[in-house]
Design goal:
purine biosynthesis, binds glycinamide ribonucleotide, 8 strands, 6 helices, 8-stranded mixed beta sheet, transferase, alpha/beta, about 35% helix, Formyl_transf_N_sf
């Protein structure tokens, strides 16, 4: 099975959706590490309770290179084939990205190439868009760029706030990321458009 490490910064609901799917017996991948830049990230305890090894490497007070060097230690020790960013809120340097070229994926809460960066839902509402969604893509040194491996759409409804829209998109994130991982772990890079 392909060995998967997951980086999170918060509650880790996408990470939990990925772990739940990988717990299915027929899955082509297995989780070997969940790591966070925030030692208090709620997802760390949840992953540990599911028996997945965890690591916390705080970025606080560290220069980016020193943080990444510390983060690399548990990652390299876990020998992942695939590295998944799942609500990981630190920008990674080109040097880090190149180490995992072609095998690091990210989920982003917009229909890329629209709205890279932050506040994606508010920006989609403010633009008058009728659709929003999420994207899983290969990570390149350019933020929220890289070949798209899957996308899922939701409608933007009258009266939506960033919060109501985020909740609707998150439901699709929890379906899309596991579905893309299954394909990716078997070598299928053709985009999944739902
Ligand atoms: C998700 O909506 C994810 O797409 C987004 O953060 C949330 C994390 O939720 N990621 C980004 O904004 C990346 N820049 P989770 O911790 O419950 O998976």
């Amino acid at each position: 099975k392909a060995r998967v490490a997951i980086l999170i910064s918060g509650g880790g609901s996408n990470m939990l959706a990925l772990l739940a799917d990988m717990a299915q017996g027929d899955h082509p991948a297995t989780p070997v590490l969940v790591a966070s830049n925030d030692p208090l990230a709620g997802g760390l305890a949840k992953a540990a309770s599911l028996g997945v090894p965890t690591a916390a490497v705080s970025h606080r007070g560290l220069a980016r290179d020193a943080f990444e060097a510390s983060l690399l230690e548990p990652i390299l020790a876990a020998k992942p084939d695939i590295l998944l960013l799942a609500g990981f809120m630190r920008v990674l340097t080109p040097g880090f990205v190149h180490r995992f070229a072609g095998r690091m994926l990210n989920i982003h809460p917009s229909l890329l190439p629209k709205y890279p960066g932050l506040h994606t839902h508010q920006r989609a509402i403010d633009a008058g868009d009728t659709q929003a969604g999420c994207t899983v893509h290969l990570v390149t040194p350019v933020l929220d760029d890289g070949p798209i491996l899957g996308q899922a759409c939701v409608p933007i409804l009258a009266g939506d706030t960033a919060g109501t829209l985020a909740a609707r998109v998150l439901v699709q994130e929890h379906r899309l990321y596991p579905a893309v991982l299954r394909r990716f772990a078997t070598g299928d890079r053709t985009p999944l458009l739902a």
